[in-house]
Amino acid sequence: MAFERNIKLLRWLSFFDDFTLFSALAIIYFSKISGSYVLGLSIFSFTMISAAIFELPTGYFSDKFGRVKTLTLGAFAFLIGSIFYAIGTNYWFLVIGAIIQGLGRSCYSGNNDALLYDNLSQSGKIENFAEENGKISSMSQLALAIAGVLGGIIAYFSFSLLMWLSTIPLIICVVLSFYLVEVKDISPIDQNILTHIKQALKNFKSSYKLQQISLTNIISFGIGEASWQFESVFIGSLWPVWAIGISKVLSHIGATFSFHFSGRIIKKFTAIKIIIFDNVVSKIINLTALSIANIFSPILMTTTSLLYGVNETATKKILQKEFSDKERATMGSLNSLFGSISFAIFAVILGLLADKLGPRDALLIKTFISFIVFIPLYKLKKAISKDD
């Protein structure tokens, strides 16, 4: 059946899209080309700002013209952006690559989860969303783990070769996207983009739980993603360059298992309990690792990955449950839009702090700032308990 083939293809698309050989060393490559940490991190910011700009148009495009067309557009954008990274003769080539990859990110953000949800809905298996989403995401983490090992070895000999080889999996993604089948019987929308976005915003306004889980997700993504991209610099101050990829590999392996078993874990403990537990434990672990700042710190920080996948899947489960069918991709894009803005802000702040105070102190300050996420989490927990 087309539905089953789509889900299998989504798993492999997830794998090859994140088979990014330079991922673990991206901040080092970008900082080397640009000349500073803040400019290196600004490349990630350009990606997120670009994604924020394109989020609503691509969300509308997905809802109106189809999930598969949007995914294919995203696959092409990721490939072209990666080519500009590989050329990378100066800072502005990186900026152009980041902007184009931002388009790809916006195409995937609300669209791919919506494509999975639609396929499961049409096949009468919507209750399997968390499990299937977790398995798809686990393929992504597995790819990052393998790429981390290979990337570290290749970078030791040549960063240029590393960047060009990273385009090959993205070519495979483009090819695979043409084998996906559109969900035919999803009713098309006939309203213009502004009316469609207005309705999506109205849906956010009418759901208190959606507001709180979205705010939690936006804050967590902005701070967490900026920190993740920058951690390689901190690890590089404790371990040799060739070993940086090892810590990333261990994190991705942990996340692979976390995503794979997330559906079962969520059924046993509930989504909200998992999100709260992860936020408490992960922050304690990071504070401890940064405080001791020795050769064991990177290993300790990798243990947070064992909760990461379950947290992400739990968050998506709550979001998808609250999203409306006709605005599903657009509502996901709205969430990603504000997440991208959040990342862009925190990435610049983190880069400035690192240039002034050093990587360790910058990450410590970031961790303390991240405690603000418990405000919307507390409100979300109360709202869910009240409904139950």
Note down, in words, how this protein is organized.
The longest helix is centred in the last third of the chain and has 30 residues, at 328-357. With 388 residues, the chain is an all-alpha fold. The protein has helices at residues 2-17, 26-34, 37-65, 67-87, 91-109, 111-122, 129-157, 159-165, 167-177, 193-206, 208-236, 241-260, 262-269, 271-292, 297-302, 305-322, 328-357, 359-369, 374-387. Helix 14 runs antiparallel to helix 16. It has a single domain, classed as Growth Hormone, Chain: A (Up-down Bundle), CATH 1.20.1250.20.
CATH topology: Growth Hormone, Chain: A
Instruction: Catalogue the unreliable spans.
Output: none
Q: Biggest β-sheet: count, sense, barrel?
A: none
Amino- and carboxy-terminal Cα gap: 37 Å
Number of domains: 1
Question: What does the secondary structure layout of this molecule look like, with pairings?
Answer:
Blueprint: H1 2-17, H2 26-34, H3 37-65, H4 67-87, H5 91-109, H6 111-122, H7 129-157, H8 159-165, H9 167-177, H10 193-206, H11 208-236, H12 241-260, H13 262-269, H14 271-292, H15 297-302, H16 305-322, H17 328-357, H18 359-369, H19 374-387
Helix pairs in contact: 1-6, 1-7, 1-9, 2-3, 3-4, 3-5, 3-17, 4-5, 4-6, 4-8, 4-9, 6-17, 7-8, 7-12, 7-13, 7-16, 10-17, 11-16, 11-17, 11-18, 11-19, 12-16, 13-16, 14-16, 14-18, 14-19, 17-18
How do you describe this structure in short?
This protein is mainly alpha-helical.
